[in-house]
Every structure is written in structure tokens, then in C-alpha cells.
Amino acid sequence: MGGGGTLISVYPEELTFLFELDKPCYCNLKVVNNSEHHVAFKVKTTSPRKYFVRPNANIVQPWDSCTITITLQAQKEYPPEMQCKDKFLIQSTRVAASTDMDEIPPDTFNKEIDKVIEEMKLKMLKNASIEEIQTIQRLKDERDTTLQQNQQMQRCAQEA
């Protein structure tokens, strides 16, 4: 289930990057318009130099969706404890059907008395390195092998 307010939902709710040194890594998000209105959204981050967000703002037609690609720039070193403190916020608001996607007015996301701006924070999951993913996979394989051996021993014990 994707998180969101009444206007949009975002899938997945967490950003996960497969982290490799000196290589950019990507994460796709799907923004779904849950209404019969045209909805503009804008993605903000606490580290705009570290990420490319395309598109970082767009208009989604009623009941339609849009895919956002977030690219983490190539990093020269691992983050401490592989934890990422960066944050992302998606703002959304209803706009007129005539609003041009290429020229979303700059005041669209200004909070005014008669305008509702929904905000949704995205969680950043721990960055996983290839080594960590391989270790997790190896541990899962070992667990599965051990479970199979236990089942085999139980069958042998029942037959004896």
C-alpha cells in the first residue's frame, strides 16, 4: 500500500538505493493521482546537489500516474554506518486543468488560506552495498540449507 494524502499516493513509500562507490544509483517512485482533479506535485530534498530528481515537478491528470527517477550522484566514500540522513518531501496541490506542465506557476506551492498543500515525507532506507546484499543472500541460502537438512533428518527419524 502506498502512502499519501487524499490527492496523491506514492509507491514505494521508502527510497532504497543500491550503493556503489563512484557509481550513480537510481530509485524510481510512482506518483498516483487519487482524484478527479489535475494535481501538481513538487519533490524537495535536503541535499539537492547530491540527487537528480526527474521530473522534480509535474502535473498528473485525474486518476493517472507519473514515474519519478531519483538519481544519487556517484559518491567517493560510504556514508557513516551506511546510514543516510537525507530527506525528501513531496508537495501536491490541485491545479486548473489548463495549467501547462512546462510552466507551473512559481507560487503553486505557496501556502495560502484558500489553497490546500498536501505534504508527504519519504523515508530513506539504509543504503545497501553489494557486499551487504551478497552477505544477506548467503545467510538466507545457509538458513534454507539448514532448514532442508533439518526436515530431512526429521523424515529419517520418523521412518526409523
From TrEMBL:
Gene Ontology cellular component list: endoplasmic reticulum membrane; plasma membrane
Domain MSP, first and last residues per copy: 7-127
Leader sequence residues: none
UniProt KW Cell cycle keyword: no
GO terms, biological process: endoplasmic reticulum membrane organization; endoplasmic reticulum-plasma membrane tethering
Pfam families per the UniProt record, alphabetical: Motile_Sperm
Entry keywords, A to Z: Coiled coil
PROSITE patterns in UniProt: MSP (PS50202)
Gene3D superfamilies: Immunoglobulins (2.60.40.10)
Coiled-coil stretches noted in the UniProt entry, renumbered to this chain: 122-156
Homology family: Belongs to the VAMP-associated protein (VAP) (TC 9.B.17) family.
Stored PANTHER family: VESICLE-ASSOCIATED MEMBRANE PROTEIN-ASSOCIATED PROTEIN (PTHR10809), VESICLE-ASSOCIATED PROTEIN 2-1 (PTHR10809:SF42)
Name of the molecule in the record: MSP domain-containing protein
Species for this entry: Oryza meyeriana var. granulata
